[in-house]
Amino acid sequence: MQARDWDERYAATEIVWGVDPNQFVARECAALAPGRALDLACGEGRNTIWLAARGWQATGVDFSAVAIEKAGSLAAAQEVAVEWQVGDLLEWEPTPRAYDLVVLAYLQVVAADRAVIWPRAAGAVAPGGTFVLVGHDRRNLTDGYGGPSNPDVLYTAADVVPHLDGFGVRYAGEVERTVATGEVAIDCLVRAARAPGSH
Fold it and tell me: How far apart are the C-alpha atoms of 80 and 153, rounded to whole Å?
């Protein structure tokens, strides 16, 4: 889907993804000391806003201008300060080693695009910082509920880990997420930390 397709999707519904943070982002980040956070492909900003409310200096980036506009309104309603940027992650490059936390949640793109975006996202993590990625796992297509039906945009934790050179991987595998209907979706979750003082 192109940015204009997502613009139309975000414009057609008041809130597409809800206002609460993703459960795995919240679980993996709750105990981290606040610093600078970067939420890539942030959509309507639910994870970015949650981080900002917990004291993070948070930046959210998405290629949908409509999503970013909605995110700004949600942040203002909750009286939290967030830096929002409209950017296509195939072109927008974060500052290397600049963030104590980088989050990438449910960015489902083909392998060639992931090979560009994932190393840049990991490269933005500062020494001692944390990288958290969650997405629809490839096995969800056959054994889980919902999510994309195109296998080309699905992946596993094993696909992510090779892009994390210089990181200590804390978790890389599948997690189950129960949806409102009671069905179970299978997600991919990776959490890694860059060693303090690494270059």
Answer: 33
Residue 6 main-chain phi, psi, to 5 deg? -70, -35
DSSP letter assigned to residue 22: P
Q: For all residues of the chain together, what is the average pLDDT?
A: 91
CA distance 44 to 192: 25
Q: Indicate the residue type of 17.
A: W
pLDDT at 199 over 70: no
Q: pLDDT per residue over 139-176, tens digit each?
A: 999 999 998 999 999 999 999 999 999 999 999 999 99
Q: Which two tokens stand for residue 96?
A: 């290397």
Between strands 36-40 and 57-62, the pairing is: parallel
DSSP code of residue 161: G
